[in-house]
Amino acid sequence: MHCRPSVHALALADLTRAGYDSGLGERGCRSLVRLQRPFIHIQSPPGDWYDKPKWFEYPDSGGGGGGHEQLFEDGVALMEQYETTSDLDDLATAVSTLRRAVELTPHNYPDMASRLANLGTSLWSRFEQTGDHQDIAEAISAEQRALELTPDGHPEMAKRLANLGTSLWDRFKRTGDVQDIAEAISLQHRALELMPEGHPAMAHTLANLGASLYCRFERTSDLQDLAEAISAGQRALELTPYGHPGMAVRLGNLGNSIRARFKHTGDLQDIAEAISLQHRALELMPEGHPAMAHTLANLGASLYRRFERTTDLQDLAEAISAGQRALELTPDGHPGMAVRLGNLGDSIRARFKHTGDLQDIAEAISMERRAVDLLEGQPDMATALTNLGMSLRSRFNRTGDLEDLAEAISAQRRGLELTTEGHPDMAWQLAGLGSSLWSRFERTGDVQALAEAISADQRALELTPEGHPVMAKRLAGLGSSLWSRFERTGDLQDLAEAISAEQRALELTPEGHPEMAERLAGLGTSHWSRFEHTGDLQDLAGAISAKQRALELTPDGHPDMVWQLANLGTSLWSRFKHTGNLQDLTEAISAQQRALDLTPEGHPDMALQLANLGVSLWSRFERTGDLQDLAEAISAEQRALEITPEGHSNMALRLANLAYSFKTRFGSTRDIYDFTEALSKYRNSANYAFGPPDIRLQAATRWAGLLEEYNPDSPDILTAFDTVIHLTTLMTTLYQVLENRYSRLVDTSGVALQAASAAFALERVDKALEWLEQGRCLVWRQLTNLRTPLDDLRRHDGHLADRFLELSKRLEGAGSVRIAARSAMSMSEKTSLEDQARDHLRSASEWDDLLAEIRATPGFERFLEPSPWYSILPYLPEAGHGIIVNVDTRRCDAIALSTGRSTPLHIPLPSFSLAKCNQYRKDLTNHLQAHDYRERGSTVATAPERGDEFRGVRKLNHATVQDILRGLWKDLVKPIIQALGIANIPASSTEAAPRIWWCPTGPLSFLPIHAAGIYTSAGTECLLDYAVSSYTPTIAALTDRISSARPIQKAVSGLFMTCQPNAPGRSHIPETTTEVQSIYDLARMEGMRAQRFDGSAITSATCLDSMERFSIIHLACHAYQNATNPLESRFLFHKGSLDLLSILQRNLKHADLAFLSACQTGTGSEKLPDEAVHLAAGMLAAGYRRVVATMWAIRDEHAPAVATDFYQYLLDHRDPADGSGFDGTHSARALHHATQQLRIRLGNDSDESLLAWIPYVHFGH
């Protein structure tokens, strides 16, 4: 599993520091032991060596003189000589002689089969020594021909079957072709069937059959093959008399098979028996025995396997000793050399993990590199590459050298590419690659690497059969990866899944298992993380308990002791923060100091231990005021920073923590050095490109705050807030699905308003405007960017434009995926989900690269970059004003942008305040509940943002609706009207009232600015008497509509409408039918192109089709707003629903006006007031130039008349030159007129009447 960092980043409860570090600790290296395995399990060949794996057939005596007979006899004699001398020259001459004999032998010669068989055996023998593929191919060909010439019942049939089986087995070992091993096993089974009980070759053939079955098991993991292999090996051993020369090899081979069973069962009795058999085999072998190296190598593999399970260092020492002896006995060029090098490298790497001796890991890497070189083009190449990758990653974990990690990942990827689907090593290789990718993420913060790691871990787990001993390791590894992603994204689903996987891993880990401590600590860390996010003390108690137990199970001197101590220290520190118990903090510091003392100089975790000790010492200073603790904290954090390598993902966090310590000391000493250092470190943290955006944003905000507090006139405040706004945009990237983008913005809500407030204080209205435009409505701007017109780009480079368009569509679809609960998913479903997430990240990365490529093109340097404030001035609407109102804790201000003005006008609002704004909003909400203004029918139709629904309050002790509107008028709207010099327009005047586009911020977004005024029985003074109001999410959203305006084609000019009075599960709204019928009759009477669908006559698909064919749409229905994922917001029909995503995916290039006669379609999210999370903004993003929406519920009985008055006004004021066509150019004035007609009909300005006409609002141009 991944070794977790001992501690990790968090925002402390009082938000005073960035928090604990998440560097790569020894828990930060996934347990290498869990991933390693012997290079291969049987050294070549595992067959019956000393007993001659093949039988040689001798010529009959008295065969006669020269020619082919003599050649054959000479070849046989040379083979006998080779068996005695092992001289390869003798073998080469024998092969040549036997080949010539076969060539000269007549085809119908009665003994041809014997000569072919012996030629095959001699070629096989040479192949065994040289590995020449040509030899084994020729051997198999000769033996197949020999078998074809052998009649049924021939006494040599069994031998020839067995010999051909051995050759096919050998070729399988070199090529991995399962057809060869299947045929080998079949031939050996046939040979055994032909042998009567007591046949002298029975034991030999059983032994070789066992070896073949074992090999197939290695390839397929079929436990039935392994069981038959062990059974055959045991029978062979029973038939082998004491003192038989084949006894030693048969003991060794049976040991190999039983070791394999241990790998699948975890039964220590199996591995003990395997080692015992291999020891006995060695005892029976005289010095110089040809199988000595092979048996030593396998004994080393078995000892290593037991060490993995028990961590008995004596086993590891013996494994290394056996492996070294095996290597010494292996001549250069031997086919088994690579395997033995790899095995020994594995063992030495394991020793490195326990000793930390860099000489060990260097030696292991050297051996594994040699193994890779020797195995080029062979099936075991993949295994060799994976093991090399593990060793390189081990060295990276000790030295932090990113080159080692890059090479490790490259080797493991290559190994995986060489592994065929279905190969039993696939899961092991995936897990190894996942470990290395996880390490890259931990070191660099590369989220793409983490996504790949999780995907690899899940695939590895999916390929691991239930009950397999390695299942616990795979679960723990996946848990670590998911925990890391939670730490980066805060997604509690990931944490829940991590805890579930780790709990399962712990349940599958038997008592006494060497990895029990690691698994306890990992689970404890996950519980601690959940406590930090939920405050559940039960999680904290579980975390401390698990970590204390883990520490108890870790022996003194064990390398894991460091991170066990550090992990426990973290949890004790957390408990101190929660309870204030100094004893916990004292124990935390003691544990962290011990962890630091045990960390060797030069270890990459040294910085981590120092950084976390610094946090705890700072916490003690905060509690006791002891400046010595603060000095030690700064010293530790400075040292941590000095040894943190450039490019490390935790550099930003360490800079921010040190900055806070300096700031704290400055508060006590007023030493200007501390102040300067705090500013410097915050600035460096904020600008550190490799740090997580949230840490950098926190640092930038504190940098700006420190300047505002102690040097409010400093121009550096502007630089700091520039950085803040830039980092705010990085919090919501295309790498995330929409739902996560919105959830992350909750933590940064109000940052742009704070920045603008600082700019106003410095009299930089231009900066305030820039930041309010760039730091708000971030997600809608991203969606708009994905749908940006490409005419200019296409004219310059059509290929670039096509790539941009294709990638935009891909990202729009990926980003809108709904986050589903994963707890009930199967592993294959989770894997598929992770693959989708990985593809999403890859597409987002491609998008970044493509943007860089486009911006490198002359003329496109600012492609999709936020426009400077002055670039929007030429596109402001004529005869009107765009007004942004900034509401912040410290001050409130307005910015007015007007055609003809070259600069923005700053209008301070000293009488308005955030407190007033919040109170007005609270009072208005209470009135809406009391008067049951929740939806057009009778039930709430929004996705609640709180756990309970509002209860109506009938008796109110709050400000009246009239009070709220009066306050908005006196303190907010009237000062703006006066500053702009807008005069009251008498009712009798024919002069057109000027337009105002309101762009409110913060909680002001929920208040009806357009209705501000004094409403009394004695008379009124209100905004309606001065101007016609509209709203816009940002000024850029308005100017974009103006700059991209195109004439509406006559073919699409017209009105499409639908009424849906009976949506399932919603209240009955009968007047929608009246509303649509009235509009339809009016349109037909005026000769307009119109179409209507009622109730079940329409589906979402037909509605979308109609939206493409008509410039204006009118939807009279229920609506559902999803504040978490706005693209899931929808209009509810009798048959199904129409969601915003589906609308956005259509090419609505002729969209002009959308009238949304539904409830709360212009109401945003309380948590994200500056993101315009409502259907009206969504329809603007879909392409509509203007939208009529509602701030709260409208009365069903009023809606038909409002709609009819609205369209009548549009028709009365259309351009006569348009004939039967019309558009929404006058839609704001039409709505202004229609609502005033409703006000007149209501007959008074009581709260009830005001709430009836105020909710209608206009968005856009």
Automatic annotation (TrEMBL):
Xref: SUPFAM superfamilies: HCP-like, TPR-like
A Pfam family annotated for this UniProt entry: CHAT
Domain CHAT: 963-1260
Superkingdom of origin: Eukaryota
InterPro entries, per the entry: CHAT_dom, TPR-like_helical_dom_sf
PANTHER family tied to this protein: FUNGAL LIPASE-LIKE DOMAIN-CONTAINING PROTEIN, KINESIN LIGHT CHAIN
Protein name: CHAT domain-containing protein
Natural source organism: Ephemerocybe angulata
